[in-house]
């Protein structure tokens, strides 16, 4: 049990708001395998204020997909508020997160994402605007630094977030410059945890049960955010919980079971996604390759999967493995 503002949540292991991945189909599969709390995919504030667009698919809801939180990307306090109000007219998240972690250059040019780590006054203004105007807890996702790790700076940013009203902080232990590569700075997360009183969630490189435990052990964080580790591996949530309780390393999931889960995941995409057929099959191929990554004969598997032109053809090829 963890408390974020007024919200009591029955887990401290969350599925991250993975842009382009954590759609409704992905979340439903993750919940079947132990994910008890998820995020919608990241939503762009500017896009929301200009009409539903692709955010309509990003914010799809389902009665089995709860509890859940939302995340907004943007760099203008007023636009962020307007977008949040639009969003809350469509969905009822447990809390709303501000993305100050996305390292993409196109996002930085909009003065959003990890740019806000380097502009803490602007970040504080966004937090203050939302917390004073909205009826739900506001949280923030940070990077451990911008161009380089600076523990004093990230501690100062975290304190400013708390002072501005943030109910929790999610911190990816890499800088913007590192993107998703290189070592995770566990020390930065630990120091943030020691210097604020709100819940701190560690993120970055949680690709296995051992790395999940390492995040808790090295940082003392209150919870973790699982991102890439869940792609093609939705059972990681159940495995982490079991490993933290027993210390027993889970048995690898064999190929027939992988294929069974993959087939169900693909069926969810086929039923739920409303995008163009070419976009849908492209997503399905990417998902299939993630499930089958690391298996013997991976090159041959890729050659079999990559040319699939339809849902039916892709499923048939997966079942032939």
Automatic annotation (TrEMBL):
<dbReference type="GO" id="GO:0000049">
    <property type="term" value="F:tRNA binding"/>
</dbReference>
<dbReference type="InterPro" id="IPR024036">
    <property type="entry name" value="tRNA-dHydroUridine_Synthase_C"/>
</dbReference>
<keyword id="KW-0820">tRNA-binding</keyword>
<dbReference type="GO" id="GO:0017150">
    <property type="term" value="F:tRNA dihydrouridine synthase activity"/>
</dbReference>
<keyword id="KW-0694">RNA-binding</keyword>
<dbReference type="InterPro" id="IPR001269">
    <property type="entry name" value="DUS_fam"/>
</dbReference>
<dbReference type="InterPro" id="IPR004652">
    <property type="entry name" value="DusB-like"/>
</dbReference>
<protein>
    <recommendedName>
        <fullName>tRNA-dihydrouridine synthase</fullName>
        <ecNumber>1.3.1.-</ecNumber>
    </recommendedName>
</protein>
<dbReference type="InterPro" id="IPR035587">
    <property type="entry name" value="DUS-like_FMN-bd"/>
</dbReference>
<keyword id="KW-0521">NADP</keyword>
<feature type="binding site">
    <location>
        <position position="141"/>
    </location>
    <ligand>
        <name>FMN</name>
    </ligand>
</feature>
<keyword id="KW-0560">Oxidoreductase</keyword>
<feature type="binding site">
    <location>
        <begin position="227"/>
        <end position="228"/>
    </location>
    <ligand>
        <name>FMN</name>
    </ligand>
</feature>
<comment type="similarity">
    <text>Belongs to the dus family.</text>
</comment>
<dbReference type="Pfam" id="PF01207">
    <property type="entry name" value="Dus"/>
</dbReference>
<dbReference type="InterPro" id="IPR013785">
    <property type="entry name" value="Aldolase_TIM"/>
</dbReference>
<comment type="function">
    <text>Catalyzes the synthesis of 5,6-dihydrouridine (D), a modified base found in the D-loop of most tRNAs, via the reduction of the C5-C6 double bond in target uridines.</text>
</comment>
<feature type="active site" description="Proton donor">
    <location>
        <position position="102"/>
    </location>
</feature>
<keyword id="KW-0819">tRNA processing</keyword>
<dbReference type="GO" id="GO:0050660">
    <property type="term" value="F:flavin adenine dinucleotide binding"/>
</dbReference>
<keyword id="KW-0547">Nucleotide-binding</keyword>
<feature type="binding site">
    <location>
        <position position="71"/>
    </location>
    <ligand>
        <name>FMN</name>
    </ligand>
</feature>
<feature type="domain" description="DUS-like FMN-binding">
    <location>
        <begin position="15"/>
        <end position="311"/>
    </location>
</feature>
<keyword id="KW-0288">FMN</keyword>
<keyword id="KW-0285">Flavoprotein</keyword>
<feature type="binding site">
    <location>
        <position position="172"/>
    </location>
    <ligand>
        <name>FMN</name>
    </ligand>
</feature>
